[in-house]
Write a structure and sequence with these properties.
With 138 residues, this protein is of the alpha+beta class. The chain has one domain: Alpha-Beta Complex (Nucleoside Triphosphate Pyrophosphohydrolase). Helix content is 18%, strand content 37%. Strand 2 and strand 3 form a beta hairpin. The protein starts with 5 loop residues before the first strand and ends in a 6-residue tail after the last helix.
Length: 138
Amino acid sequence: MSGAPRIPCVGAIVHDFGGRLLMVLRANAPAQGTWSIPGGRLLPGESPEVGCAREVREETGLDVQVGELVGRVNRPAPGGGTYLIDDFRCHVVVGTPLTPVAGDDAADCRWVSHEEFRGLTTSPGLTEALREWDALPQ
């Protein structure tokens, strides 16, 4: 097991002024067809902060300022290995339109309220992690 790849990844926890959470519908494995926060693998040599902003832009079209590290999770990667995911609190850059547009590997994206979040099928462990970090939508 020690030879299995460890793949550095990032996730973005982005709330709007109303407390809604930015979510993406995953178009690809892992967790294809489930809702999650924007994120993905870091590129070689890329810092977590730069990668986090890039992933949000690619998946939603929104520009964000990456803030503090909220938490870390490990998830199994397809074909073996482990995704090492650093999740950051992010804020939409002032002047950026607040309407997300799905791109890259997102089949859909939207802001969700607490009630809407409860009705979504989310990626494994997401709800528990967001609850632990007090980052669920309001």
